[in-house]
Amino acid sequence: MKRGYVKAGRAIVALVLLVGGVSRALGEEVWSARNGTTTLSLYHESLGELGLTVSAELEQASPQMPFTQEVLEVDGRTDLTFTVKDGSVVEVFGNWLHLAEGLTLVVGDAEWTVSALGFASETLVAPRAAEPGAATHCGVGCVQLDGLKVGFNPRDQKFTIYARELSISPALAETLGAPELAGTVLGSAHMILDAQWTGGDEPRPVDALDGDGPAEGGVGPDVTLCQVYNLRQFGRVGGVVGLSSAGTSWNVGDVRLDWFGSPNPRHPFIVYNVFRIKDDRFEQIGQSWIKHGWCALDNTQCGGSCQGTGCSTLNVNCTDTYSSSLNASQSGLGPRDEVNPWTGTWTYAGSHFAAGAQSHNQIQHRIAVKDADLDPAQNAGATYYFDQIYICYDDVDVMNSSGWKPATPVGAPGGMWQFTQSGSGTMPTSGFAYDAWDGARQTLLAQEIPVVEFESPDGRCVLSAKATDLGGGTWHYEYALFNIDMDRKVNSFRIPIPAGTNVTNVGFHAVESMDEPYSNTPWTPVVGDNSVTWSTSDNPVRWGTSYAYRFDADVPPGDVTVTLGMYEPGTPATVAGTTTGPFRAGPAIVHGSDGVSFSNWAFTGFIDAAMESDDGQNVNLGLNEFTIQFSEAVQNIGGGPLSADAFVVRETGGAAPPNVTGFTALHDQEVTLTLDRNITLTEWTTIEAHVQNTSGVAIENLGDLGPGVAEPDRIDIGYLPCDINQDGTVSPFDLLTFRQITVDLFDHDSGVDGDYIDTDRDGSVSPFDLLAFRQLINGVSPPATQSWNSASMGSARP
């Protein structure tokens, strides 16, 4: 290989890694690393801008890759020492990595050679190692490494170092006579060295490294957290400190997980949060921007065996660690709003990173927490928790991609906070930190339940709720809404209250965001006649974030329906679910009962699948009579016996609904309504009751809460011949369901078999019903007026 120099005399170019003086804590192993390889990836664009070329032996990784790679041998003169505790690297010590053969870079008629990797006298895992300008302790010929990751695989006894940015130091730029080149990124470096135990505690036996781990992983790539640790302070501005924590991800799936670096969007997005429980109130008090992951080192901190695949994927059963220092590196953090948490998508163009290098103060984009929220003197009895959440493009299970731990702050405002916490060897609790709020009722809220990864339209929130008896007929209601991965976000929160409820002490809390296109303005509460509602126009609940709501009321708790408004436009505009809230018992329509025929009982969400015609020409069969039963005795609003005026009929599709022409009160809990025509084919018909009980408590009218939610004041009935399985579409699966019902293999929601498969409407189930079904689905006339195969409801269920 041709050798040369930048200027007269040989210039050795050193790659600076940051290490420290030797020290060892209890429980640490000491290892040394010697022979191995380093792979330099040099970016074509940067080299071209500098007028640089590389020696001919270098090869482009692939036609699509924007870099050229060279693998260089690290020889036996190297003597690098590092300490390990619980499978994780604690500190690195040493002087040089010597290269058996150097690398030549050419500019014009001049050349320079990289022949050694030098280490300055700083600590690899210290906060300054991840901050701009930290690696500046090299001499004249220095190419510096920033964004450092280290890992150790005890099974293979390999020590790994990865540097995200290989750049020209100020000293080297001066040597080249081009000071403007300082900081120019040339590429990255990946070093894999053989390690040997040399002292300290004896290494754990390989078989002892297996650990318990998750019970099982998903089918496909499935990332979870097996280490969350080392919450620490990295700076302050006034009364606010910047925190960060370390964590180890683990692919427990059966397929490798994408881990490309930016600008490729298929890399992990990681966020960090801090929470506090004080006076039985769960609040988020700190959050970070997104850590954009890069280079999975494929280690085994959490047990088992791992086959390394290189930086761009995390292989099955492999782990990858980001230290607190690396996670605190502000150059690697981007705003949360740039990522769709449900799809895991992100675009480099127009992103925070595309704007180029930016300056930061000591807390920007780290976990920003106020002194006042940590101060033991101001937070007597409080407990604290920190977490990490991973969003990955191809992860099959987001719900196990988070882990949390408790931590106790020690210190005082204005100083350096320390945190009492377990070490990396203690696994975090898998899931989300709201699980630390003991006794809270949790409700899953989403557009579609169950939420199915890669299929449902959006992600989910979880609402935690508590009701506390304050005595004297007053209860305190506390809610914490955590948005896990709902991209549409939440801009309103509504809890119904009975008429006449006295509401006091209304409160709200939201963690503050930094430099995102939203405000930190508190939500506006409105106490109405039948609800307490908070709303915002510019501060929605984003993903990985928790907001809190609270009030006191003079009504005891019961089951109520919470309603969330969606911030982003779309359908539905709201989602709802059952939680705990002020509840004064009132009447409700009974929504079906096993063993009671539909002809005598109107249960909600039912689709009539029977014949629509007896002559194959006229639609003259259907439903026009309904028996509705209430949970208790009812009367008209304002008093007096029930009448037809207490019921309102609506239909989807825009056509005029039928009218109530017949009304019979069988007794004070049951009425029969007769309509002036059959309900409309392929549309939903809603019958809503406006009644009250004998104590004057009205039936609760919650409005339209979307499909699948049983509402106390209404029933919904559809009409679609042949839709035996009640999914709103006719297909061969309905024939399968028909046969399953006849042999008791299908468990329908309510009613009896005839409600679903008495196709010819003669009051009994027989083989003639199967014949009628086949005739309907194929359009045989009579009895069919058309072929019902592939037909569907004209409108979604209200």
Structure notes:
This protein has 798 residues and is mostly beta strands. A hairpin with a 2-residue loop joins β6 and β7 (88-94). It is elongated and about 100 Å long. It starts with 11 loop residues before the first strand and ends in a 20-residue tail after the last helix. The model is unreliable at 1-22, 56-64, 119-140 and 208-215 (pLDDT under 50).
Topology of helices and strands:
Blueprint: E1 12-18, E2 29-43, H1 44-50, E3 52-54, E4 59-60, E5 67-74, E6 80-85, E7 88-94, E8 96-107, E9 110-120, E10 142-153, E11 158-168, H2 170-175, E12 185-200, E13 223-237, E14 240-251, E15 257-258, E16 269-278, E17 281-287, E18 290-292, E19 313-314, E20 319-322, H3 324-327, E21 333-334, E22 367-370, H4 371-374, E23 383-391, E24 402-410, E25 418-420, E26 429-430, E27 441-446, E28 460-471, E29 474-483, E30 490-496, E31 503-510, E32 524-527, E33 531-535, E34 545-553, E35 557-566, E36 574-582, E37 606-608, E38 625-629, E39 634-636, E40 647-651, E41 660-667, E42 670-675, E43 684-689, E44 691-693, E45 714-719, H5 732-742, H6 754-757, H7 767-778
